Amino acid sequence: NQPLNFKQELTCVFGQPVAENPTQCMMEAAYNACGLEWRYLTIEVAPENLAQAVGGLRAMGFRGANLTIPHKVEVIQYLDGISDAAAMMGAVNCIVCKDDQLLGENTDGKGFVQSLKEVTDPAGKKIVMFGAGGAARAIGVETALAGAAEITIVNRSTERGEALAQLLREKTSVPTTFTKWDGDYTLADDVDVVINATSIGLYPDVDAVFPLDFASLKSNMIVSDVIPNPPETHLLREAAKAGCTTLDGLGMLVNQGVIGFQLWTGVDPDPKVMRAALEEVFGVE
Ligand code: NDP
Question: Does ligand 1 have an atom closer than 6 angstroms to the CB of 155?
């Protein structure tokens, strides 16, 4: 007879606002499918309470945590160490609690690359990425580390776009240029992978028009979007019409969750269970 155990292992996400973050449903589905007595809590933490909230992870023996807006940069000062890739990006989205130490990792870009690898290897590819915020920094660093041949950053604000291009040039050996996004962007014929890493199309702005000359899409291009909700965006609809291979934001979301799950539990979850849980909440057919 097993002794009774009412104490579950705890993981969570801290953010503000956080109520619409769907990570809980995919992580708890995966815990259940693996027979793990673990929980994943969605916790609203205001910026001024972040230090105490991280102290709470230590005090209550949490096994891991994710960070979302606005905590990914500020959290670093409260951790015992961070990975090289997270240091390069200057952002942490995943804390692993081990032996009384809180270690920071960034799984966003790794999740994206994992999702991309399901359709192509980024090594040797010419990449155009829209956006230069947190998601773009993570994706830029990881696609560069995965051996991209060339990266063009296209961003509305020059300051953030230039800063990301400079970071990639200095920290990786990948040739990276910045182009200011002004009107509909025209893709060069030899682009292999197109990435939307902006928030254009995110709920509730679901009818947002993506500023791209869609006639410049070629059927051999891979077009990916980070927007998880709704997973089908204007960009992906147009790319599918042009015959491109498309990757939605659920792929990145699932794969960054898979990496966090492995770091916390040491167990490999089933990505299909996680995607199915997300598709159910987002009403994907
Ligand atoms: P940030 O606020 O850090 O960056 C937003 C980026 O979008 C900036 O480059 C900004 O440009 C650009 N942008 C926003 N609105 C417009 C617009 N109307 N026209 C042109 N550019 C615009 O956000 P994050 O990088 O943290 O997040 C971006 C998106 O990524 C979010 O929608 C988030 O949901 C998604 N995401 C998805 C994940 C997943 O697993 N699928 C994981 C993490 C994030 P500018 O510099 O000019 O302001």
Answer: yes
Classify residue 4: in a domain, yes or no.
Answer: no
pLDDT digits (tens, 9 = 90+) for 81-115: 999 999 999 999 999 999 999 999 999 999 999 99
What's the 198 CA to ligand 1 centre distance in angstroms?
3
Ligand 1 atom at minimum distance from 251 CA: 41
Residue 142 lies in a domain: yes
ipTM of the complex, rounded to two decimals: 0.99
Compute the distance from residue 209 Cα to the ligand 1 centre, in Å: 15
**Contact in structure between 192 and 221 (CB atoms under 8 Å):** yes
- Report how far ligand 1's centroid is from the alpha carbon of 5 (Å): 43
Pair 276, 239 in one domain = no
Distance from C-alpha of 257 to C-alpha of 171, rounded to nearest angstrom: 26
What is the domain extent for residue 170? 109-247
Give catalytic status of residue 272 as yes or no: no
Q: Look at the chain and report how many structural domains it folds into.
A: 2
pLDDT digits over 218-274, tens only? 999 999 999 998 999 999 999 999 999 999 999 999 999 999 999 999 999 999 999
Q: ∠201-259-94 over CA atoms, to 5°?
A: 75
Q: Are 104 and 82 in contact (CB under 8 A)?
A: yes
